[in-house]
Amino acid sequence: QVQLVESGGGLVQAGGSLRLSCAASGRTFSRVAIAWFRQPPGKEREFVAAVLRSGGSTYYADSVKGRFTILRDYAKNTVYLEMNSLKPEDTAVYYCALEGSHYFTTAPSDYDYWGQGTQVTVSS
Predict the structure, then answer these.
(1) Angle at CA of residue 70, ends 6 and 73, nearest 5°
(2) Cα(50)–Cα(101) distance, rounded to whole angstroms?
(3) Alpha helices of 29-94 — where are they, by DSSP H?
(4) Above 80 in pLDDT, residue 28?
(5) What Cα–Cα distance (Å) separates residue 114 from each residue in 6, 34, 38, 84, 94?
(6) d(CA 90, CA 25)
(7) Quick check: helix, strand or coil at residue 5?
(8) What is the per-residue pLDDT across 41-73, written as a single tens digit (0 to 9) for each?
(9) Which residues, other chains included, contact 12 with Cβ-Cβ below 8 Å and sequence gap of 6+?
(10) d(CA 48, CA 45)
(11) Confidence at residue 29, expressed as pLDDT on a 0 to 100 scale
(12) CA dist list (Å): 34 to 11, 13, 15, 25, 90
């Protein structure tokens, strides 16, 4: 049984930093990618960042490129999202998810395991 548990959200001022964690358990090693998504208030869920199983390549949404970093600790089976220079528009519930297809995509519908989410609020 696959389980994803996020932690590390909270309230931070604009310009600040947070580090989110996603602890994975179960058969996760065979998945193409593990990713972070977010859902701002009143908006649809959107892709943030992903790390691929093959080669460890990383991908980022343009809106977070240069500010966020996704890291994977294989020994701990944990994925981190380091967020710097946070902006009020980064306010959202952040989710980690496992890719369910055979190739990397950024569409939420292609991810079949999700964590419960962690709230990130950035004040101006």
Answers:
(1) 75
(2) 14
(3) none
(4) no
(5) 10, 10, 12, 24, 10
(6) 27
(7) strand
(8) 999 999 999 999 888 899 999 999 999 999 999
(9) 18, 86, 120, 121, 122, 123
(10) 10
(11) 67
(12) 25, 28, 27, 13, 20
Q: Give the type of residue at 121.
A: T
* pLDDT for residue 118: 97
- Measured between alpha carbons, how far is 2 from 51 in angstroms, rounded to an integer? 18
Would you say 20 and 34 are in contact if contact means Cβ atoms under 8 Å apart?
no
List the structure tokens of 91: 């306010």
Whole-number Å distance between alpha carbons of 24 and 91: 24
CB 46 within 8 A of CB 37: yes
CB-based contact 111:98 (threshold 8 Å): yes
> What is the tens place of the pLDDT at every residue in 67-97?
999 999 988 999 999 999 999 999 999 999 9
Q: Which residues of 45-60 are buried (b: 16+ CB within 10 A; e: fewer)?
A: bebbbbbbbeeeeebb
